[in-house]
Amino acid sequence: MNEFKELTRQGLWENNPALVQLLGLCPLLAVTASITNAMGLGLATLFVLVGSNITVSLVRQWVPQEIRIPVFVMVIATFVTIIQLLMNAYVYELYQSLGIFIPLIVTNCAIIGRAEAYASKNPWPKAAFDGLVMGVGFALVLMLLGGMREIIGNGTLFDGAELLLGDWAAQLRIELFEVNYPLLLAILPPGAFIGLGFIIAGKNWIDAKREAKAEKIEKTVTRARVTAES
Amino acid sequence: MATKTMQKNGLLLALFAIIATFLVLAVEALTEDRIKAQQRAQTLRSLNEIIPSTLHDNDLYQSCRLIQEPALGTSEPTALYRAFNDDRRSALAAEIIAPNGYSGAIRLLLAIDPNGTVLGVRTLEHQETPGLGDKIETQKSDWIRSFSGKRVRSADDKRWAVQRDGGMFDQFTGATITPRAVVQAVKRATLFLQQNSDTLFAADLPRCQQEQVMEVSDE
Protein backbone atom coordinates (compact mmCIF):
# COMPACT_ATOMS: atom_id res chain seq x y z
CA MET A 1 0.00 0.00 0.00
CA ASN A 2 2.83 2.32 0.91
CA GLU A 3 4.27 1.94 -2.54
CA PHE A 4 1.06 3.24 -4.12
CA LYS A 5 1.23 6.27 -1.87
CA GLU A 6 4.82 6.84 -2.89
CA LEU A 7 3.88 6.44 -6.57
CA THR A 8 1.15 9.05 -6.17
CA ARG A 9 3.56 11.50 -4.57
CA GLN A 10 6.10 10.89 -7.32
CA GLY A 11 3.64 11.23 -10.18
CA LEU A 12 1.76 14.27 -8.97
CA TRP A 13 4.59 16.26 -7.43
CA GLU A 14 8.13 15.00 -6.82
CA ASN A 15 8.67 13.55 -10.26
CA ASN A 16 5.88 15.21 -12.25
CA PRO A 17 6.48 14.44 -15.94
CA ALA A 18 5.82 18.01 -17.05
CA LEU A 19 7.40 19.98 -14.20
CA VAL A 20 10.35 17.88 -13.11
CA GLN A 21 11.13 15.35 -15.82
CA LEU A 22 10.25 18.03 -18.40
CA LEU A 23 9.09 15.31 -20.75
CA GLY A 24 6.41 15.67 -23.40
CA LEU A 25 6.96 19.40 -23.78
CA CYS A 26 6.07 19.39 -27.45
CA PRO A 27 2.36 18.61 -27.01
CA LEU A 28 2.35 20.46 -23.71
CA LEU A 29 3.38 23.72 -25.29
CA ALA A 30 1.40 23.28 -28.46
CA VAL A 31 -2.12 22.54 -27.26
CA THR A 32 -2.45 24.48 -24.03
CA ALA A 33 -4.02 27.58 -25.58
CA SER A 34 -7.30 26.67 -23.89
CA ILE A 35 -8.29 24.50 -20.96
CA THR A 36 -10.58 22.38 -23.15
CA ASN A 37 -7.78 21.44 -25.53
CA ALA A 38 -5.48 20.80 -22.59
CA MET A 39 -8.02 18.48 -21.02
CA GLY A 40 -8.55 16.65 -24.30
CA LEU A 41 -4.87 15.99 -24.83
CA GLY A 42 -4.37 15.27 -21.13
CA LEU A 43 -7.05 12.57 -21.17
CA ALA A 44 -5.70 11.07 -24.39
CA THR A 45 -2.17 10.97 -22.96
CA LEU A 46 -3.45 9.50 -19.69
CA PHE A 47 -5.24 6.73 -21.54
CA VAL A 48 -2.19 5.93 -23.67
CA LEU A 49 0.07 5.96 -20.62
CA VAL A 50 -2.09 3.54 -18.62
CA GLY A 51 -2.62 1.28 -21.63
CA SER A 52 1.03 1.17 -22.60
CA ASN A 53 2.20 0.68 -19.02
CA ILE A 54 -0.13 -2.29 -18.51
CA THR A 55 0.80 -3.86 -21.83
CA VAL A 56 4.53 -3.35 -21.34
CA SER A 57 4.31 -4.80 -17.85
CA LEU A 58 2.33 -7.85 -19.04
CA VAL A 59 4.73 -8.71 -21.85
CA ARG A 60 7.90 -7.89 -19.96
CA GLN A 61 8.85 -11.53 -19.37
CA TRP A 62 8.75 -12.36 -23.06
CA VAL A 63 10.56 -9.32 -24.35
CA PRO A 64 14.34 -9.74 -24.38
CA GLN A 65 16.45 -6.77 -23.39
CA GLU A 66 17.71 -6.17 -26.95
CA ILE A 67 14.35 -5.59 -28.58
CA ARG A 68 12.48 -3.94 -25.73
CA ILE A 69 12.64 -0.40 -27.17
CA PRO A 70 11.10 -1.25 -30.57
CA VAL A 71 8.43 -3.30 -28.82
CA PHE A 72 7.61 -0.41 -26.46
CA VAL A 73 7.42 2.01 -29.35
CA MET A 74 5.10 -0.36 -31.20
CA VAL A 75 2.84 -0.75 -28.17
CA ILE A 76 2.63 3.04 -27.70
CA ALA A 77 2.09 3.73 -31.40
CA THR A 78 -0.73 1.19 -31.47
CA PHE A 79 -2.48 2.79 -28.52
CA VAL A 80 -2.11 6.27 -29.99
CA THR A 81 -3.50 5.20 -33.36
CA ILE A 82 -6.46 3.58 -31.67
CA ILE A 83 -7.14 6.72 -29.63
CA GLN A 84 -6.82 8.84 -32.72
CA LEU A 85 -9.40 6.74 -34.56
CA LEU A 86 -11.77 6.77 -31.58
CA MET A 87 -11.48 10.54 -31.15
CA ASN A 88 -11.99 11.07 -34.85
CA ALA A 89 -15.15 8.99 -34.63
CA TYR A 90 -16.66 10.22 -31.38
CA VAL A 91 -15.34 13.71 -30.60
CA TYR A 92 -14.82 14.92 -34.14
CA GLU A 93 -14.68 18.64 -33.46
CA LEU A 94 -12.17 18.30 -30.67
CA TYR A 95 -10.17 16.00 -32.89
CA GLN A 96 -10.06 18.77 -35.46
CA SER A 97 -8.80 21.33 -32.99
CA LEU A 98 -6.17 19.03 -31.46
CA GLY A 99 -5.29 18.07 -35.00
CA ILE A 100 -1.76 16.96 -35.51
CA PHE A 101 -0.92 16.76 -31.83
CA ILE A 102 -2.59 13.39 -31.26
CA PRO A 103 -0.04 11.45 -33.34
CA LEU A 104 2.62 13.38 -31.45
CA ILE A 105 1.68 11.52 -28.28
CA VAL A 106 3.81 8.72 -29.75
CA THR A 107 6.83 10.98 -29.38
CA ASN A 108 5.89 12.01 -25.85
CA CYS A 109 8.97 10.86 -24.00
CA ALA A 110 7.02 10.68 -20.76
CA ILE A 111 5.30 7.56 -22.06
CA ILE A 112 8.30 5.59 -23.24
CA GLY A 113 10.11 6.91 -20.19
CA ARG A 114 7.59 5.30 -17.85
CA ALA A 115 7.56 2.11 -19.92
CA GLU A 116 11.33 1.79 -19.64
CA ALA A 117 11.83 3.12 -16.12
CA TYR A 118 8.89 1.54 -14.34
CA ALA A 119 6.46 -0.66 -16.25
CA SER A 120 9.14 -2.99 -17.61
CA LYS A 121 10.29 -3.80 -14.07
CA ASN A 122 7.05 -4.04 -12.11
CA PRO A 123 3.86 -6.12 -12.05
CA TRP A 124 0.91 -4.76 -13.99
CA PRO A 125 -1.28 -3.37 -11.19
CA LYS A 126 1.59 -1.17 -10.02
CA ALA A 127 2.45 -0.24 -13.60
CA ALA A 128 -1.17 0.69 -14.26
CA PHE A 129 -1.24 2.84 -11.15
CA ASP A 130 2.04 4.50 -12.10
CA GLY A 131 0.61 5.29 -15.54
CA LEU A 132 -2.51 6.69 -13.93
CA VAL A 133 -0.79 9.07 -11.51
CA MET A 134 1.87 10.14 -14.01
CA GLY A 135 -0.89 10.76 -16.56
CA VAL A 136 -2.95 12.71 -14.03
CA GLY A 137 0.12 14.72 -13.04
CA PHE A 138 0.78 15.55 -16.66
CA ALA A 139 -2.88 16.36 -17.38
CA LEU A 140 -3.12 18.65 -14.34
CA VAL A 141 -0.14 20.70 -15.48
CA LEU A 142 -1.61 20.84 -18.99
CA MET A 143 -4.90 22.12 -17.60
CA LEU A 144 -3.26 24.62 -15.27
CA LEU A 145 -1.24 26.05 -18.13
CA GLY A 146 -4.25 25.92 -20.47
CA GLY A 147 -6.38 27.72 -17.90
CA MET A 148 -3.76 30.41 -17.35
CA ARG A 149 -3.30 31.04 -21.04
CA GLU A 150 -7.02 31.04 -21.75
CA ILE A 151 -7.77 33.54 -18.98
CA ILE A 152 -4.95 35.89 -19.92
CA GLY A 153 -5.39 35.55 -23.66
CA ASN A 154 -9.12 35.26 -24.07
CA GLY A 155 -10.74 36.23 -20.79
CA THR A 156 -12.64 32.94 -20.69
CA LEU A 157 -12.46 29.51 -19.11
CA PHE A 158 -13.81 26.25 -20.54
CA ASP A 159 -14.56 27.86 -23.88
CA GLY A 160 -15.72 25.08 -26.21
CA ALA A 161 -15.90 22.48 -23.45
CA GLU A 162 -19.02 21.09 -25.11
CA LEU A 163 -16.82 19.76 -27.92
CA LEU A 164 -15.19 17.42 -25.42
CA LEU A 165 -17.84 16.71 -22.80
CA GLY A 166 -21.12 16.99 -24.67
CA ASP A 167 -23.73 19.71 -24.85
CA TRP A 168 -24.27 20.07 -21.11
CA ALA A 169 -20.74 21.40 -20.80
CA ALA A 170 -21.61 24.54 -22.76
CA GLN A 171 -22.74 26.06 -19.44
CA LEU A 172 -19.29 25.51 -17.94
CA ARG A 173 -18.02 28.39 -20.03
CA ILE A 174 -17.07 31.34 -17.85
CA GLU A 175 -16.43 34.75 -19.31
CA LEU A 176 -14.23 36.57 -16.83
CA PHE A 177 -13.86 39.73 -18.83
CA GLU A 178 -14.54 40.98 -22.33
CA VAL A 179 -11.55 41.14 -24.64
CA ASN A 180 -11.67 42.95 -27.92
CA TYR A 181 -8.27 41.77 -28.97
CA PRO A 182 -6.98 38.54 -27.46
CA LEU A 183 -3.58 38.88 -25.87
CA LEU A 184 -1.62 37.04 -28.50
CA LEU A 185 1.48 36.53 -26.42
CA ALA A 186 -0.49 34.24 -24.11
CA ILE A 187 -2.11 32.27 -26.91
CA LEU A 188 0.91 31.78 -29.16
CA PRO A 189 3.73 29.33 -28.27
CA PRO A 190 5.90 31.92 -26.46
CA GLY A 191 3.08 32.30 -23.94
CA ALA A 192 3.31 28.59 -23.25
CA PHE A 193 7.04 28.79 -22.55
CA ILE A 194 6.63 31.78 -20.27
CA GLY A 195 3.63 30.23 -18.49
CA LEU A 196 5.37 26.90 -17.97
CA GLY A 197 8.41 28.75 -16.68
CA PHE A 198 6.29 30.45 -14.05
CA ILE A 199 4.64 27.17 -13.03
CA ILE A 200 8.02 25.44 -12.62
CA ALA A 201 9.35 28.43 -10.69
CA GLY A 202 6.27 28.25 -8.45
CA LYS A 203 6.81 24.56 -7.79
CA ASN A 204 10.48 25.11 -6.97
CA TRP A 205 9.56 27.98 -4.66
CA ILE A 206 7.11 25.79 -2.74
CA ASP A 207 9.71 23.01 -2.56
CA ALA A 208 12.35 25.41 -1.27
CA LYS A 209 9.99 26.70 1.41
CA ARG A 210 9.09 23.20 2.51
CA GLU A 211 12.73 22.22 2.62
CA ALA A 212 13.62 25.23 4.71
CA LYS A 213 10.84 24.33 7.13
CA ALA A 214 11.98 20.72 7.31
CA GLU A 215 15.56 21.83 7.99
CA LYS A 216 14.43 24.03 10.82
CA ILE A 217 12.62 21.14 12.47
CA GLU A 218 15.63 18.92 11.98
CA LYS A 219 17.86 21.50 13.64
CA THR A 220 15.65 21.71 16.69
CA VAL A 221 15.55 17.95 16.86
CA THR A 222 19.37 17.72 16.73
CA ARG A 223 19.75 20.23 19.48
CA ALA A 224 17.25 18.32 21.60
CA ARG A 225 19.25 15.17 21.07
CA VAL A 226 22.43 16.96 22.13
CA THR A 227 20.85 18.05 25.36
CA ALA A 228 19.54 14.56 25.95
CA GLU A 229 23.00 13.07 25.54
CA SER A 230 24.77 15.51 27.78
CA MET B 1 24.33 -18.93 -30.81
CA ALA B 2 24.15 -15.28 -31.79
CA THR B 3 22.23 -16.11 -34.96
CA LYS B 4 19.75 -18.09 -32.92
CA THR B 5 19.06 -15.19 -30.57
CA MET B 6 18.75 -12.87 -33.53
CA GLN B 7 16.25 -15.20 -35.18
CA LYS B 8 14.25 -15.47 -32.01
CA ASN B 9 14.21 -11.71 -31.49
CA GLY B 10 13.29 -11.10 -35.10
CA LEU B 11 10.38 -13.50 -34.87
CA LEU B 12 9.22 -11.94 -31.61
CA LEU B 13 9.30 -8.45 -33.14
CA ALA B 14 7.37 -9.71 -36.15
CA LEU B 15 4.80 -11.27 -33.85
CA PHE B 16 4.35 -7.99 -31.97
CA ALA B 17 4.05 -6.12 -35.25
CA ILE B 18 1.35 -8.51 -36.45
CA ILE B 19 -0.66 -8.18 -33.25
CA ALA B 20 -0.34 -4.38 -33.29
CA THR B 21 -1.39 -4.15 -36.94
CA PHE B 22 -4.32 -6.43 -36.31
CA LEU B 23 -5.53 -4.31 -33.39
CA VAL B 24 -5.29 -1.08 -35.35
CA LEU B 25 -7.10 -2.64 -38.31
CA ALA B 26 -9.86 -3.90 -36.06
CA VAL B 27 -10.44 -0.49 -34.50
CA GLU B 28 -10.28 1.15 -37.88
CA ALA B 29 -12.93 -1.19 -39.23
CA LEU B 30 -15.11 -0.44 -36.22
CA THR B 31 -14.82 3.34 -36.49
CA GLU B 32 -14.64 3.77 -40.25
CA ASP B 33 -18.34 4.34 -40.85
CA ARG B 34 -18.67 6.72 -37.99
CA ILE B 35 -15.70 8.82 -39.06
CA LYS B 36 -17.13 9.10 -42.58
CA ALA B 37 -20.50 10.00 -41.13
CA GLN B 38 -18.89 12.71 -39.00
CA GLN B 39 -17.12 14.25 -41.99
CA ARG B 40 -20.28 14.07 -43.99
CA ALA B 41 -22.27 15.61 -41.15
CA GLN B 42 -19.83 18.49 -40.92
CA THR B 43 -19.99 19.27 -44.64
CA LEU B 44 -23.76 18.93 -44.51
CA ARG B 45 -24.01 21.28 -41.53
CA SER B 46 -22.06 23.93 -43.40
CA LEU B 47 -24.07 23.29 -46.57
CA ASN B 48 -27.36 23.61 -44.76
CA GLU B 49 -26.24 26.82 -43.12
CA ILE B 50 -25.65 28.54 -46.43
CA ILE B 51 -28.38 26.83 -48.47
CA PRO B 52 -31.40 26.88 -46.17
CA SER B 53 -33.79 23.96 -46.47
CA THR B 54 -36.47 26.30 -47.85
CA LEU B 55 -34.31 26.68 -50.94
CA HIS B 56 -33.99 23.04 -51.89
CA ASP B 57 -35.83 19.75 -51.71
CA ASN B 58 -33.15 17.43 -53.07
CA ASP B 59 -30.52 15.61 -51.04
CA LEU B 60 -27.56 17.98 -51.27
CA TYR B 61 -25.03 15.40 -50.25
CA GLN B 62 -26.14 13.07 -53.00
CA SER B 63 -25.97 15.93 -55.49
CA CYS B 64 -22.21 16.10 -55.05
CA ARG B 65 -20.27 16.11 -58.32
CA LEU B 66 -16.57 16.45 -59.02
CA ILE B 67 -15.32 19.39 -61.00
CA GLN B 68 -11.82 20.33 -62.04
CA GLU B 69 -11.43 24.07 -62.41
CA PRO B 70 -8.46 26.32 -61.58
CA ALA B 71 -10.80 29.22 -60.79
CA LEU B 72 -11.93 27.29 -57.71
CA GLY B 73 -8.42 27.54 -56.35
CA THR B 74 -7.09 24.07 -56.98
CA SER B 75 -6.00 21.90 -59.86
CA GLU B 76 -7.47 18.85 -58.10
CA PRO B 77 -11.09 17.82 -58.62
CA THR B 78 -13.28 19.47 -56.03
CA ALA B 79 -16.88 19.02 -54.90
CA LEU B 80 -19.81 20.84 -56.50
CA TYR B 81 -23.32 20.64 -55.02
CA ARG B 82 -26.46 21.47 -56.97
CA ALA B 83 -29.65 22.44 -55.19
CA PHE B 84 -33.09 22.22 -56.77
CA ASN B 85 -36.50 23.25 -55.52
CA ASP B 86 -39.45 21.71 -57.36
CA ASP B 87 -36.96 20.85 -60.11
CA ARG B 88 -36.09 24.51 -60.49
CA ARG B 89 -32.47 25.50 -60.02
CA SER B 90 -32.00 27.19 -56.70
CA ALA B 91 -28.36 27.16 -55.69
CA LEU B 92 -24.86 26.05 -56.58
CA ALA B 93 -22.26 25.29 -53.92
CA ALA B 94 -18.61 24.40 -54.30
CA GLU B 95 -15.70 23.53 -52.07
CA ILE B 96 -13.06 26.06 -52.99
CA ILE B 97 -9.54 26.79 -51.84
CA ALA B 98 -7.81 30.02 -50.95
CA PRO B 99 -4.24 28.90 -51.61
CA ASN B 100 -2.55 31.98 -50.20
CA GLY B 101 -3.59 32.03 -46.54
CA TYR B 102 -1.10 33.09 -43.90
CA SER B 103 -0.33 29.46 -43.06
CA GLY B 104 -1.19 27.61 -46.22
CA ALA B 105 -4.39 26.76 -47.99
CA ILE B 106 -7.81 27.60 -46.56
CA ARG B 107 -10.68 25.30 -47.57
CA LEU B 108 -13.97 27.11 -48.01
CA LEU B 109 -17.50 26.26 -48.96
CA LEU B 110 -19.25 28.80 -51.18
CA ALA B 111 -22.86 28.89 -52.37
CA ILE B 112 -24.47 31.21 -54.90
CA ASP B 113 -28.02 31.45 -56.21
CA PRO B 114 -28.77 31.19 -59.96
CA ASN B 115 -28.54 34.99 -60.31
CA GLY B 116 -24.99 34.91 -59.06
CA THR B 117 -25.66 36.43 -55.64
CA VAL B 118 -23.57 34.86 -52.87
CA LEU B 119 -25.76 32.90 -50.47
CA GLY B 120 -22.96 32.32 -48.01
CA VAL B 121 -19.41 31.25 -47.37
CA ARG B 122 -18.12 28.95 -44.62
CA THR B 123 -14.63 27.89 -43.63
CA LEU B 124 -14.15 24.14 -43.70
CA GLU B 125 -10.49 23.87 -42.80
CA HIS B 126 -7.61 26.24 -42.13
CA GLN B 127 -4.37 26.66 -40.19
CA GLU B 128 -4.48 30.41 -39.63
CA THR B 129 -3.04 31.97 -36.48
CA PRO B 130 -5.25 31.45 -33.42
CA GLY B 131 -6.62 34.77 -32.24
CA LEU B 132 -5.86 36.56 -35.50
CA GLY B 133 -6.63 34.77 -38.74
CA ASP B 134 -9.06 32.31 -37.19
CA LYS B 135 -11.79 34.96 -37.21
CA ILE B 136 -12.84 33.34 -40.50
CA GLU B 137 -14.58 30.68 -38.38
CA THR B 138 -18.19 31.39 -37.52
CA GLN B 139 -17.44 30.34 -33.94
CA LYS B 140 -14.96 33.18 -33.56
CA SER B 141 -16.51 36.03 -35.52
CA ASP B 142 -19.29 36.89 -37.96
CA TRP B 143 -16.88 38.16 -40.57
CA ILE B 144 -17.41 35.28 -43.02
CA ARG B 145 -21.15 36.07 -43.08
CA SER B 146 -20.43 39.47 -44.64
CA PHE B 147 -20.25 37.77 -48.05
CA SER B 148 -23.93 36.85 -48.02
CA GLY B 149 -26.04 38.82 -50.45
CA LYS B 150 -23.07 40.30 -52.30
CA ARG B 151 -22.58 40.09 -56.05
CA VAL B 152 -19.47 40.24 -58.19
CA ARG B 153 -20.11 42.67 -61.01
CA SER B 154 -17.06 41.93 -63.10
CA ALA B 155 -13.56 40.55 -62.95
CA ASP B 156 -12.22 43.97 -62.00
CA ASP B 157 -14.92 44.76 -59.45
CA LYS B 158 -12.91 47.01 -57.10
CA ARG B 159 -15.31 46.51 -54.20
CA TRP B 160 -14.21 42.89 -53.83
CA ALA B 161 -11.18 43.57 -51.69
CA VAL B 162 -10.44 44.30 -48.06
CA GLN B 163 -10.88 47.89 -46.94
CA ARG B 164 -7.15 48.50 -46.79
CA ASP B 165 -7.07 47.79 -50.53
CA GLY B 166 -10.07 50.05 -51.10
CA GLY B 167 -12.71 47.32 -51.03
CA MET B 168 -15.86 46.67 -49.00
CA PHE B 169 -14.70 43.88 -46.67
CA ASP B 170 -13.24 44.48 -43.22
CA GLN B 171 -9.79 43.24 -42.49
CA PHE B 172 -9.00 41.97 -39.00
CA THR B 173 -6.83 43.97 -36.65
CA GLY B 174 -3.35 42.57 -37.12
CA ALA B 175 -4.31 40.24 -39.94
CA THR B 176 -4.83 41.37 -43.50
CA ILE B 177 -3.39 38.41 -45.34
CA THR B 178 -6.08 35.94 -44.27
CA PRO B 179 -9.15 38.03 -45.22
CA ARG B 180 -7.43 39.16 -48.39
CA ALA B 181 -6.84 35.54 -49.42
CA VAL B 182 -10.44 34.60 -48.63
CA VAL B 183 -11.93 37.58 -50.47
CA GLN B 184 -9.80 36.86 -53.55
CA ALA B 185 -10.71 33.19 -53.59
CA VAL B 186 -14.43 33.86 -53.12
CA LYS B 187 -14.42 36.54 -55.80
CA ARG B 188 -12.68 34.34 -58.33
CA ALA B 189 -14.88 31.32 -57.61
CA THR B 190 -18.11 33.34 -57.55
CA LEU B 191 -17.27 34.84 -60.89
CA PHE B 192 -16.65 31.41 -62.35
CA LEU B 193 -19.82 29.92 -60.88
CA GLN B 194 -22.06 32.76 -62.00
CA GLN B 195 -20.64 32.86 -65.51
CA ASN B 196 -20.99 29.11 -65.95
CA SER B 197 -24.04 28.48 -63.84
CA ASP B 198 -26.15 27.17 -66.76
CA THR B 199 -23.53 24.67 -67.81
CA LEU B 200 -22.77 23.66 -64.23
CA PHE B 201 -26.39 22.92 -63.38
CA ALA B 202 -26.84 20.79 -66.47
CA ALA B 203 -23.40 19.28 -67.02
CA ASP B 204 -22.89 15.58 -66.68
CA LEU B 205 -20.12 15.48 -64.11
CA PRO B 206 -18.62 12.47 -62.33
CA ARG B 207 -20.14 11.69 -58.95
CA CYS B 208 -18.11 12.32 -55.81
CA GLN B 209 -16.51 9.18 -54.51
CA GLN B 210 -18.50 8.66 -51.40
CA GLU B 211 -19.63 5.35 -50.14
CA GLN B 212 -23.17 5.00 -49.01
CA VAL B 213 -22.90 5.52 -45.32
CA MET B 214 -25.45 4.39 -42.86
CA GLU B 215 -27.31 7.11 -41.06
CA VAL B 216 -25.72 7.66 -37.67
CA SER B 217 -27.96 9.14 -35.06
CA ASP B 218 -26.73 12.32 -33.41
CA GLU B 219 -25.45 11.77 -29.94
Summarize the structure.
The complex is a heterodimer of chains A (230) and B (219). Chain A is mainly alpha-helical and 230 residues long.
Task: Report on the architecture of this protein.
The complex is a heterodimer of chains A (230) and B (219). By secondary structure, chain A is mainly α. In chain A, helix 3 runs parallel beside helix 6, helix 3 packs antiparallel against helix 7 and helix 4 packs across helix 6. The C terminus of chain A is likely disordered. Chain A has one domain. Chain A is built from 10 helices and 2 strands. Chain A has a two-stranded antiparallel sheet. With 219 residues, chain B is an alpha+beta fold. Chain B has one domain. Chain B has 3 helices and 5 strands. In chain B, strands 1-2-3-4-5 form a 5-stranded antiparallel sheet. In chain B, strand 4 and strand 5 form a beta hairpin. Chain B is globular, with a radius of gyration of 22 Å. The relative contact order of chain B is 0.14. Chains A and B meet through helix 4 of A and helix 1 of B.
Structure keywords:
heterodimer, A: 230 residues, mainly alpha, 2% strand, disordered C terminus, B: 219 residues, alpha+beta, five-stranded antiparallel β-sheet, 34% helix, 19% strand
Percent of sequence in beta strands of chain B: 15-25%
Q: How much helical structure, as a percent, in the residues of chain B?
A: 25-40%
CA(first)-CA(last) distance of chain B? 58 Å
Number of helices of chain A: 10
Give the assembly state of these chains: heterodimer
Biggest pleated-sheet summary of chain A? 2 strands, antiparallel
Roughly how much helix do the residues of chain A carry, as a percent range? over 70%
Report the strand count of chain A: 2
Round the mean pLDDT of chain B to the nearest integer and report it. 86
Number of domains of chain A: 1
